[in-house]
Amino acid sequence: xxxxxxxxxxxxxxxxxxxxxxxxxxxxxxxxxxxxxxxxxxxxxxxxxxxxxxxxxxxxxxxxxxxxxxxxxxxxxxxxxxxxxxxxxxxxxxxxxxxxxxxxxxxxxxxxxxxxxxxxxxxxxxxxxxxxxxxxxxxxxxxxxxxxxxxxxxxxxxxxxxxxxxxxxxxxxxxxxxxxxxxxxxxxxxxxxxxxxxxxxxxxxxxxxxxxxxxxxxxxxxxxxxxxxxxxxxxxxxxx
Length: 240
Prior knowledge:
Elements: H1 3-48, E1 51-53, E2 58-60, H2 90-109, H3 114-126, H4 130-143, H5 148-160, H6 164-177, H7 182-194, H8 198-211, H9 225-231
Antiparallel strand pairs: 1-2
Helix pairs in contact: 2-3, 3-4, 3-5, 4-5, 5-6, 5-7, 6-7, 7-8, 8-9
Protein name: Cytochrome c biogenesis factor
Organism: Allocoleopsis franciscana PCC 7113
Keywords: Membrane, TPR repeat, Transmembrane, Transmembrane helix
């Protein structure tokens, strides 16, 4: 083999090495681009997995550690706004929004959690979002048709909407099935009071207190002489 041939062979060998190096880098760059594209493709779905429907739209869920926000039924913790037109403070609104997010976190973990849905319904009602509240309670009843808290929630929504007859019928329907449910008698009293049926409201509150003497505790700050008298906050009776 002549020197020229050797030189040409070396050049061809070097050229092949360069081409291979270029191809390797091109493949690596292509792989990196593909990985980046895949990440950007998956990322929106990953973000969506942290969302759960609130029946009207999807809202991002925070993984709450404060489980106390989610405990129990919200309807069992009555607020004075049930009987007043006073707007909620920003702090109260933020608190309710936090509870809603906490309930959504529960639903994310268990899509059949009827209690979480009805709690969303009551929180939305207190925020004035009656359509969303009604849908949440209806969803709860789809999952658990005999859930009294959801039926109470729907009765309160009817009252908030000014549907007096529907509100009365709804709360009476709950009491027909659960005659010893103190909170149902309590809310019957609030509904009747809002309709200016003070005597009937007093009877309902008295029945609620008879069934659950501690029920008066959540409403000790209410500025309603009638209810304070019925539930035991007279001058000679210390508040609890």
